[in-house]
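Why do we care about 3D structure at all? Because function follows from shape, and shape follows, mostly, from sequence. That is the central idea of this module. The next example makes it concrete: a single protein chain, its amino acid sequence, and then its structure expressed as tokens.
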Amino acid sequence: MNRYNALIKNDITNGEGVSVSFFVQGCPHKCSGCFNPETWDYMGGEPYTEHTKKEIIDAIGANGIERNFSLLGGEPLDPVNLTMTEDIVSTVRITYPNIKIFLWTGYNFEELPHYEPIFHKMFECVDIVIDGPFKEDLKDLDLKLRGSSNQNVWAKNNGLWRKTNG
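And the structure:
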């Protein structure tokens, strides 16, 4: 069973503008200096259910105001979390076609198997990917959307991904 650590319904820290942020549970990277080490344990957090998904969808459009959606962790692209991640981003994209969907991963974007159906479907739904493990020795609080300078910001434009770094 998939698990999650937290759901923040009005987040101004992760993403652009106001976002609903969903933190998956479980991470293989365990980066030194991680801002969210409580997400590392695969058995921590709460079970992800259909009710959780409904809560996310309702939060994005609460009070008639659409928020962006941010998916963090833990590691959303860990094999344990991948099906849940694809389910969430697909549902969010179908329900809210005009919002931005952000996804943070410790994996390198260029090395992910984009040709595999689950990755292909997921990346069709996501707008911005922030990749790479957090590296404490490269920490830079001035970076947009990133915690360390080795990480990259990838944006999709007309179906093509390009590195923008903010």
